[in-house]
Amino acid sequence: MAEILALYGSPRRKGNTALLLKKAVEGAVEAGAEVEEVVLRDLKMSPCLEIYGCKKAGRCVIQDDFQAVYDKALACRGLMLASPIFFYTVSAHTKTLMDRFQSLWVKKHWIDKVPFGKRECSKKGLFISVGATKGKRLFEGALITVRYFFQVLDMELWQSLLYRSLDFEGDVLKYPAYLEEAYTAGKELAESMRGRAGEQHTTIRI
Ligand SMILES: Cc1cc2nc3c(=O)[nH]c(=O)nc-3n(C[C@H](O)[C@H](O)[C@H](O)COP(=O)(O)O)c2cc1C
C-alpha cells in the first residue's frame, strides 16, 4: 500500500482540482513519497444504503470498489483529497465515498467503544478545493465535512488549499502560483511525514 493516497473527487478528469492535485502528487513524488492516485468517478461505488451491515463485522458489507479504497485509506500515512465545491460542499463523488466511511465510524465508536471526542491524529490530510464564485463562506460547508471525515480516519486536516473564482476547465492554468502552491504542499506533506517541515495552515485565494 502506498504511503500517500491521492483522491480525485471531481467528475472532470482535467478540471481545476485535478490539475492542482496532480501538481501536489508531483511534489510528493519529488520528495520521495510513494503515491497512489484514485479517480473517484472511475469507481463503481454505491452510496451508503444505511442498512448498518457494518454493525456486525465493523466493515461495510456492500461489495464494490469502495472496499479497495477503504483498505488504501486505512493503510496510508497521508491523504490528498481534491474536490470542487458543488452547492457549497464537496462533489457527489467525494461525498459518496465519505458516507461509506460511516462503517469505520461504527467500528470505532459502536464496536471498539472509542469515546467521542477522543482524537488521535496519526495521519495528515491535505484538502484542495475550488469554487466558481467569490463568496466569503464558499468553503465553510466543505471544510466542516472534510474535517469530520478526516477525523474518522485519525487524520488531521494538515493543510487546505482553497481557490475562488475558477469555473471553466483549465481556469487554474492561468494562475501558475496556485499550481506552485499545490506542488509545494505535496512536497511538504511527504517531507512532514518524515518529520521535516510542514506547518498546519490554510491558503485561501480570492
Ligand atoms: C453541480 C455543480 C454545483 C456547483 N456549485 C457551486 C457552488 O455552490 N459554488 C461555487 O462557487 N461554484 C459551484 N460550482 C462551480 C464549480 O465549483 C467550478 O466550476 C469548479 O472550478 C469546478 O472544479 P473542477 O474543474 O475541479 O471540477 C458548481 C458546479 C457544478 C457542476
Q: How is this structure best described in words?
A:
Helix 1 (16-30) crosses helix 7 (176-192). This protein has a six-stranded parallel β-sheet, sandwiched between helices. Helices cover 38% and strands 19% of the residues. The protein has 206 residues and is of the alpha/beta class. The protein has seven helices and six strands, in the order E-H-E-H-H-E-H-H-E-H-E-H-E. It has helices at residues 16-30, 54-57, 66-75, 92-100, 102-111, 140-152, 176-192; strands spanning 4-8, 35-39, 78-84, 123-130, 155-163, 201-205. The mean pLDDT is 94. Flavin mononucleotide is lined by residues 10, 12, 15-18, 84-88, 130-133, 138, 166-167, 169. Flavin mononucleotide binds next to helix 1.
Which descriptors apply to this entry?
six-stranded parallel β-sheet; binds flavin mononucleotide; globular; alpha/beta; 38% helix; 206 residues; 7 helices
